[in-house]
Write a structure and sequence with these properties.
- The complex is a heterodimer.
- Helix content of chain A is about 75%, strand content about 0%.
- Chain A has 15 helices and no strands.
- The model of chain A has no long low-confidence stretch (mean pLDDT about 85).
- The model of chain B has no long low-confidence stretch (mean pLDDT about 85).
- Chain B contains 12 helices and no strands.
- By secondary structure, chain B is mostly helical.
- In chain B, about 75% of the residues lie in helices and about 0% in strands.
- The chains are: A mainly alpha, B mainly alpha.
């Protein structure tokens, strides 16, 4: 198993390598002069030449790539074209809102989705099951920003229960922090809830058909412990895997959710960078988000290899 | 939605009614989708000019004259919503076709030629790690292109899903006796691939294509919403919502109608996808 774990950890290196190649090529192979793109619409030829010089764009591509990778390996994500602040600093400054939003959303989604999925599997084919699965299709279909604005209109503008937009750091108190995050986290988590609920239901249905579940029932085990201890525990691997894969959904959603609710996080940073074509920031954010995705899925794999004695490599 | 409805039919019915009874999700979705497609196709006959600016009529509530109201520039929200269907459906359909074709070719190669497999799958793993919306945003932002660039930018992150699916099907099919028999009779590799393995991919690919279409429409709307989509002078549901969001309180209809249309189209496609999955791919149906 140790050998598997080592191999699994090492496998992330080529994956991140490929990500780095893509992110590098994005700027260098797409049509147009990267220096001109970075310089923007009003650049003079001198500006462009200066940028070419500064970024070493006249060197062969492989040299540029190696130099860039070497900088990345030292944690240097480059410098914003506009503010001249290191991209890593910008990302760190914006980390708290994004992390708060993502973690709250994951927590909400996992709790709700697993509960819904277990209930749907328990009542498979009945009304409750139909309702849960209908909601799941709905959750996949409504875009984050549509849900977001509908919620803002209903709960903030009409009912005035929650603030319209914005973010309060948790240092200013737990309640203001939570109040500002309830709607964004719900909107962001909707598709994630749908995904996890569906897989929970499917995985539970498979386990509930097993002989030992029937045996437990015959022995007189009550329904709640039967569902949770006997079934859910054994249905956990596909669920946990999907929670990991679904992080990709969440990351894409963060960019949109932060725009809708005006949350000053990494997503806003990205959108602002797109509008200004601040390329180093876009590159840096893509790399960091991809790394997060790869690491989350690494952790998921490692954890259930360690926890589930049935998985042996 | 994955629930197979029990057969309650005693007397066999014929034709559409019977199909509709057995496949309520497919039919509901398909009818809705057909309606949207017709609206998009005949937009000029149904609606007025989506670009006409009439400042005197700004932010009018829905009425008999303005069915969906007007936006902050006095543009007809109904006309813009109708025309917006065009971009969504064109992008959804094109991405689904492009991603399936590309993914099918790459997946067949990876599954059948073991030497290529490791390289291709590493590249796909890397591509899958990049958040789809961010990759598409970056591509569009760089090239500042039109609809074609948006289609390409959304297709690229969708391809790995198809590759993985096709590869899995090929790997299973390779082990089947009829493929071994074909190998034993010294059929050429290409012939085995096309005649014996390719047909296995059709059913799961049709299902996957519908999901990719839904996902592409969602990503396109997100790109337009974030200002990194098709040029802003083309009305799309995403850029309609983006340009109206400041007027949410005064004129909720400017956000509501494009939002509902978007959700309905994606819902319709997902319903068709779920229905097809239950019919065509029972293995997947049990898993989801």
């Amino acid at each position: 198993m140790t050998a598997y774990l080592i191999r699994r950890v090492l496998a992330t290196i080529p994956t991140m390598g490929i990500v780095a190649v893509f992110v590098f090529l994005l700027l260098h192979v797409t049509p147009g002069d990267p220096a001109a793109i970075i310089a923007g619409d009003n650049a003079t030829p001198q500006n462009i030449a200066a940028i070419r010089e500064r970024l070493g764009l006249d060197d062969p591509l492989w040299q540029q790539f190696l130099r860039w990778i070497f900088q990345l390996a030292q944690g240097d994500l480059g410098v914003s074209m506009f503010s001249n602040v290191p991209v890593s600093t910008l990302i760190m400054q914006r980390l708290e809102p994004t992390l708060s939003l993502a973690l709250l959303s994951i927590t909400l989604a996992v709790v709700l989705a697993i509960a819904a999925g277990v209930l749907a599997a328990w009542k498979a084919g009945r009304t409750l099951d139909r309702v849960v699965m209908g909601f799941a299709v709905f959750g996949f279909s409504v875009p984050v920003f549509v849900v977001g604005y509908l919620m803002i209109y209903l709960f903030a503008i009409e009912l005035r229960w929650l603030p319209v937009q914005g973010y309060r750091p948790i240092a200013e108190g737990f309640w203001p922090w939570l109040r500002h995050l309830i709607m964004p986290a719900t909107a962001l988590g909707l598709a994630y809830v749908a995904l996890i609920a569906r897989i929970t239901r499917a995985s539970m249905l498979e386990v509930l058909a097993e002989d030992y579940v029937r045996t437990a029932r015959a022995k007189g085990v009550a329904t709640p412990p039967l569902l949770l201890k006997h079934a859910l525990k054994n249905a956990a691997v596909p669920i946990v895997t999907v929670i990991g894969i679904g992080v990709a959904l969440l990351i894409s959603g963060v960019v949109i959710t932060e725009t809708v609710f005006n949350i000053p996080g990494i997503g806003r940073l990205t959108v602002d960078a797109i509008n200004k074509r601040d390329y180093p920031i876009i590159q840096g954010v893509i790399l960091v988000f991809s790394l997060v995705y790869v690491l989350v899925n690494l952790i998921v794999d490692v954890v259930y290899t360690l926890v589930d004695p049935r998985i042996r490599y | 939605m994955a629930v197979a409805l029990p057969e309650t039919e005693a007397r066999p019915k014929r034709g559409f009614a019977r199909f509709a009874r057995r496949n309520p999700t497919i039919v509901t979705g398909a009818v809705l989708l057909l309606f949207m497609a017709l609206v998009a196709l005949f937009a000029p006959l149904i609606a007025g000019d989506p670009l006409a600016i009439t400042p005197i009529n700004r932010l009018q509530a829905p009425s008999s004259e303005w069915w969906f109201g007007t936006d902050h520039l006095g543009r007809d929200v109904f006309a813009r919503t109708v025309y917006g269907a065009r971009v969504s459906l064109i992008v959804g359909l094109s991405v689904a076709i492009a991603a399936v074709v590309l993914g099918l070719v790459i997946g067949l190669l990876a599954g059948y030629y073991r030497g290529l497999d490791a390289v291709i799958m590493r590249v796909m793993d890397g591509l899958m790690a990049i958040p789809a919306i961010l990759l598409a945003i970056a591509l569009v932002a760089l090239t500042r292109g039109g609809v074609l660039v948006v289609i390409i930018a959304i297709t690229i992150p969708e391809v790995p899903r198809v590759v993985r699916l096709v590869r899995a099907v090929v790997l299973t099919a390779r082990e089947q006796a009829y493929v071994e028999a074909a190998v034993a009779t010294a059929s050429s590799g290409l012939k085995i691939l096309l005649r014996h393995i390719l047909p296995n991919t059709v059913a799961p690919l049709i299902v996957q294509a519908t999901y990719i279409c839904a996902s592409a429409i969602l990503i396109e709307s997100a790109l337009s919403f974030l200002g990194a989509g098709v040029p802003p002078e083309i009305p799309t549901w995403g850029n309609m919502i983006a340009s109206s969001r400041l007027f949410l309180q005064m004129a909720p209809w400017t956000v509501l109608f494009p939002g509902i249309s978007l959700a309905l189209v994606v819902l319709a496609i997902n319903l068709v996808g779920d229905g097809l999955r239950d019919r065509l791919d029972p293995r997947l149906a049990r898993r989801m």
